[in-house]
Design goal:
globular; binds farnesyl diphosphate; single chain; alpha/beta; six-stranded parallel beta sheet
Length: 248
């Protein structure tokens, strides 16, 4: 049960929640375990969170699974993380599909092993027509790189003479990001107590509420998600205007 006294049912659920799943390594070292064990427990927390998000009525859940900067980790840890993604898709895709989850992937795919690219495509393909929770997997993802990709696409249109530079607007840049049809996140959660965004969704979070929780990711669960949502409901969202739009 949520430790927060505010009943969730009293407010609209955030439509899009995005999570920076941080603290796997610290969770493991606090227990004298290898970092890989922290990541494995992180996948279990991910399973629970996806289930809870669907039950709570969240429409879009974006998870930061592997950042463009994570390549700087030791090769053995990169192998662990790639292996976990492979296993997550092989073991969990059927259940996700059964539960109506639609998988989307954002990030740069060209640097990934061909079998990982195929698995990501298979997950998107199989779940394409599902109408339940949309699970957006940010993999080999960096926001600055995503914005640069959008700029490059727009530059090609200008070069080909189909777009005048005066027609470049914020909206057009948004339309050229990796998943332009998704709504911006209402709520960003980062676990582990760190209070920064680490190159995650920098364009899309212009008006998102940021909630930082001390819990290490492997300990995150439905109660922690509900508590973060309760904190979101206490915020006033004004979108640059004067009138507060609380709790949605
Ligand atoms: C941050 O913890 C987490 C990651 C770098 C990866 C997140 C990955 C998972 C939750 C499991 C993998 C899931 C899939 C689907 C691939 P950290 O290692 O930075 O922790 P630390 O800051 O305590 O060292």
């Amino acid at each position: 049960m949520s430790p927060n006294p505010i009943p969730l049912s009293a407010f609209a659920t955030p439509r899009h929640v995005a999570i920076i799943m941080d603290g796997n390594g610290r969770w493991a070292s606090a227990r004298g375990l290898p970092r890989g064990e922290g990541h494995r427990r992180g996948v279990e927390a991910l399973r629970k969170t996806v289930r809870a998000a669907g039950e709570i009525g969240i429409s879009f859940l974006t998870i930061f699974s592997f950042s463009a900067e994570n390549w700087s980790r030791p090769p053995s840890e990169i192998r662990d993380l790639m292996g976990l993604l492979r296993r997550f898709i092989r073991n969990d895709l059927a259940e996700l599909h059964q539960n109506g989850v639609k998988v989307r992937v954002i990030g740069e795919r060209t640097d990934l092993d061909p079998d990982i690219r195929r698995l990501l495509e298979e997950a998107e393909e199989l779940t394409r027509d599902n109408t339940g929770l949309t699970l957006v997997v940010a993999f080999n993802y960096g926001a600055r790189q995503e914005i640069a990709r959008a700029a490059a696409r727009i530059a090609v249109m200008v070069k080909n003479g189909v777009l005048d530079p005066s027609a470049i607007t914020a909206e057009l840049i948004g339309q050229n990001l990796d998943a332009p049809d998704l709504p911006d996140p209402d709520l960003i959660i980062r676990t582990s107590g760190e209070q920064r965004l680490s190159n995650f969704l920098l364009w899309q979070i212009a008006y998102s509420e940021l909630v930082f929780v001390p819990t290490y990711w492997p300990d995150f669960d439905r109660a922690a998600l509900e508590s973060a949502i309760a904190e979101y409901h206490r915020r006033e969202r004004r979108f640059g205007g004067l009138i507060a739009q609380t709790g949605s």
